[in-house]
Amino acid sequence: MKVVVAHNRYREAIPSGENVIVDTEIEQLRAAGVEVVPFQRSSDSIEAMPASRKVLLPISPAYGADAQRDLSRLITAERPDVLHLHNPYPLLSPWVIRTAHAHGLPVVQTVHNYRQVCSSGLYFRDGHNCRDCRGKAFGWPAVKHRCYRGSAAQSAIMATTLAVHRGTWRSVDRYIALTDKIAAHLTDYGIPADRIVIKPNGLPDPGTPEPLGDGFLYGARLSPEKGLGLLLDAWRRHPDGSLGTLRIAGDGELRPLAEQAAAERSDVTYLGPLDRAGMTAARRASAVVVAVPTWEDVLPTVILEAMSTGRAVLGTAVGGIPYLIGSGSAAAGWLAQPNPASLAAALPIARAGATTAAANARERYLRHFHPDVLTKRLIEIYTDMISDSQRVPR
Fold first, then answer.
1. pLDDT tens by residue, 149-162
2. Residues above pLDDT 90, as percent of the chain
3. Is residue 315 within 8 Å of 335, Cβ to Cβ?
4. For the residues of 89-123, what is the DSSP string, one character each?
5. Region 206-218: what's the mean pLDDT?
6. Distance from C-alpha of 220 to C-alpha of 248, rounded to nearest angstrom
7. How far apart are CA 32 and CA 199, in angstroms?
């Protein structure tokens, strides 16, 4: 089996769970004997582009002429069985689905966010959850509120792209929903249930967990929906030093909040943006990983990383986080409501129960998110889709 994996990489300077998942999935598929042909673009390349190409960037989300030409050549040369799409924006465009179909190639997409409907992909704006564009033929609210990159013009382009490609998205042969909530989002969008399968992301097994460190680790993009402000509000409700150390890793618009907290309190350390090795070291030094978004976060990779390394998780009860952590005596951690009082109450509980929950976290990873389990499921999805496409020619 030969699979083209298409993905527009997010900037490497900002931690991206989606980039990690794509890289990991490629490695896992190759280890299972699948021939993988990457077809990737990187948003890091935009800055170095000549002016003549930058002029055309505004239309890239809708069409991406260079990407379509290159993909067509790749399909002709490689003759793959499947195209697996992850993120198409901004340099690939959903048009790659049409290009693949023009070559008779079935397409599966893993849905990492809500961008079939929402220009930002988050269902979140101005500090609160938002579904103003849901059910609309054109996302005027996204333009009004500058939801895409803080720009009315770019938001108009993205809203236009979503309107233009409504039929394109509905032509995808199979959708991989990471959780039941994403499956419900797709059904609401008009995707038939028989074209949706639920398969979470997974990560390679790092081996036997190392002994627990102390304190908490928060590692994420420092943007409002990721919950840094919520965490710091909760943390300040406890005396300095009473919970151990809070380590903050990442970069983004809320970086000044992290720097201010580190300057004000001896128990807060801002580590700055970290690469994978840096995040591994920070996780090793900690006992509990904190994932406290206020938006409906689909399936935070930081939680998978924590569970695989035997670290318990304190999360907010939003999006796919309850699905990841689980419930009852075998839960991989604790859930709090996304408000300061609930999170503040959960912090000392998490510190006291870190050892027991860490063992649960590792066991839950092995049962549900290990590559041996998930790669087998992914190959089954490809096989079923290829079989269906052969029975019903385009």
1. 899 998 998 999 99
2. 81
3. yes
4. TTTT-THHHHHHHHTT--EEEEE-SSTTT-SSSSS
5. 96
6. 8
7. 17
Alpha-carbon Rg for the chain in angstroms = 21
HSE-up of residue 7 (Cα within 13 Å, Cβ side): 25
Strands ordered across the beta sheet of 107-111: 35-42, 2-9, 82-85, 107-111, 174-177, 196-198
Tokens 């019903």 identify what position?
392
Report how far residue 120's alpha carbon sits from residue 131's, in angstroms, rounded to the nearest whole number: 11
Residue type, 51: A
175 pLDDT higher than 70: yes
Tell me the pLDDT band of 335, cut-offs 50, 70 and 90.
very high
Position 18 scores a pLDDT of: 86
3-state helix, strand, coil in the chain (%, to 5): 45, 15, 40
What is the residue type of 200?
Answer: P
Please count the other Cβ atoms lying within 10 Å of the Cβ belonging to residue 41.
22
Classified as helix, coil or strand, 40 is strand
Q: Say what percent of the chain tops pLDDT 70.
A: 94
The mean per-residue pLDDT over the stretch 246-270 comes to: 97
> Which CA distances in Å does 297 have to 24, 317, 337?
20, 10, 14
DSSP assignment string, 282-317: HHHT-SEEEE--SS--S--HHHHHHHHTT-EEEEES
Q: Which residue has the tokens 């989606």?
A: 18
> Which amino acid is it at 8?
N
pTM of the shown model: 0.81
Cα–Cα distance between 240 and 196 in angstroms, integer? 48
How many angstroms separate the CA atoms of 21 and 101, rounded?
A: 25
Question: What angle separates helix 95-102 from helix 65-78, to the nearest 10 degrees?
Answer: 30
CA 177 to chain centre: 12
d(CA 247, CA 235): 12
- CA–CA dist 24, 22 (Å, integer): 5
Residues 6+ apart with CB under 8 A from 380: none
Q: H or E segment at 41?
A: strand 35-42
State the residue for tokens 């991206």.
16
